[in-house]
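As the work plan foresaw, our protein records have gained a structure token line. A representative record is set out beneath this paragraph:
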Amino acid sequence: TLAASGMSARLLICLALLGAAVSAAASPASPDDAVAAALKLFTEYNKAIRPPPDSGFANTLNVFIYLNSIVKVDSANQEIKLKVWLHVHWTDSRLAWKGKFNSSLDNISAISLPASYLWQPDASFYDV
């Protein structure tokens, strides 16, 4: 009947849409997602644990301070207030992917992730 064929057509369309949604969810949407999935970043990476040492003894941090502006100079109290940009660079070998997985990820040179997902060193400056 016409009603039954219309209902089966709607059912097929719903199943096709559901299948497309499931396959879209199963395959990463971007290179960032592909690398994060391969590294198991959201399931096995523990940001609370320090990465393995670079040289066997400690992790090397490269710290760069860029002067943006001098905000205030108080010569009587020998104080200066600066506005700076702080850039800290380190290597976390747990996040390396080149040569680890299939070659399709080797052409990805960098990904963007929120810093809150990654281990970050405790670097502070006081009265410098």
User: Anything to note?
Assistant: The chain is about 25% helix and 20% strand. Residues 28-117 form a domain with the Acetylcholine Binding Protein; Chain: A, fold (CATH 2.70.170.10). Helices lie at 2-26, 31-38. Confidence is low (pLDDT under 50) at residues 1-26.
